[in-house]
């Protein structure tokens, strides 16, 4: 990002400060009250940029990763199958998907209880994309003060080309984001070729345009409004916080009384604390708040104000850390406690959920069978005088290769299988197979006998056996 001047003389800096309405009190839906975020360099901003790069690269490259003859991550809605590398989740396995969402939720609760809203500040797509858009804004319109002046100026050729270039770059990023997002649902190669040659379906064009507008609107215009007014996480995160949760906090005991001074002046003689009231912590804040007013739900823990204040402290020759990642207990001088019941509780649930998920994914059956009894008659006597029950079998081959299956029945003595006992099913196909089972009535000890329909196969060199319990009527 383009860096603004780093004033050594803060009385000079005060002179170039341009008045903006107090963003924390102003109507955020009024475009006149938009926040002009000042770029800052520092430890946390660097970390946020690096994490943004990782998140962005992951998002952009994942749909291009092959896995066999398909995309590694592919949510195939038309076939109702979700492929995640070697794992294929069918509608019948949706509990696995639900478990995955629960793991993500408890992971977030655990991290939030310990580290506060670091998800929001460092990896949330809203934050990552907003900072990408701000980067383009800076490139074309200049640093914060220049942007404020540009917006106040009448239209000119200079203003026109800068605004056009900025919005064009935003639209290109939004379009790339939208096509990438859609390529998680439609194979990426096919999607890009069809999209460029104008052969894609109307549905695909609709979703790409929809997500382009959504990205452009959210990261370009809505920005902090999304975080403050629309994101449900911002609302319920307070329930996860306690006095040992890491927050971004201002050490008011050290900072107050705030006030301007030069490097050479002794603040103690002037009756001042370490805050020189330079306003930089407010100018760099993407949600436009003043952290010196205490913990506010608008704060996304991005650490930009820490970097701004640390830079100021360094220039003044003071100790860093007037604003820092801290906890309420630390600020009040109370002993910090890492292990506490809420954190342990989330950790235990998270560990159990992860272990269950690993077990369930490792033991996921590669074939599924449903046995449906004939509803028209419970049983009948056939030509040989045997008691016969009819069933419809629905067999789903959940693998990605054709498979051969053997069918049999257990639980009846000398049972006769009427219908094919050896079937082959294409990858991902469901075979509907009507079959009958007959038995000499002498062999039936009771009116209703519990039986198992068994399916066996050898899949990838491993024996597979599935049994489905049902009832045999007669006798
Ligand atoms: S107060 Fe600081 S940490 Fe919180 S959102 Fe603003 S800049 Fe980020
Ligand atoms: S807290 Fe730090 S950055 Fe904010 S006004 Fe005071 S000295 Fe400046």
From TrEMBL:
Gene3D superfamilies: 3.30.70.20, Immunoglobulins (2.60.40.10)
Keyword Electron transport: yes
InterPro entries: 4Fe4S_Fe-S-bd (IPR017896), 4Fe4S_Fe_S_CS (IPR017900), Cyt_c_oxidase_cbb3_FixG (IPR014116), Electron_Trans/Redox (IPR051684), FixG_C (IPR032879), Ig-like_fold (IPR013783)
TM spans (from-to): 51-67, 94-115, 168-186, 192-216, 343-362
Keywords: 4Fe-4S, Electron transport, Iron, Iron-sulfur, Membrane, Metal-binding, Transmembrane, Transmembrane helix, Transport
Keyword Transferase on entry: no
Stretches assigned to the 4Fe-4S ferredoxin-type domain: 266-294
The protein's name: Cytochrome c oxidase accessory protein CcoG
Organism in which the protein naturally occurs: Shewanella metallivivens
Gene symbol of the encoding locus: ccoG
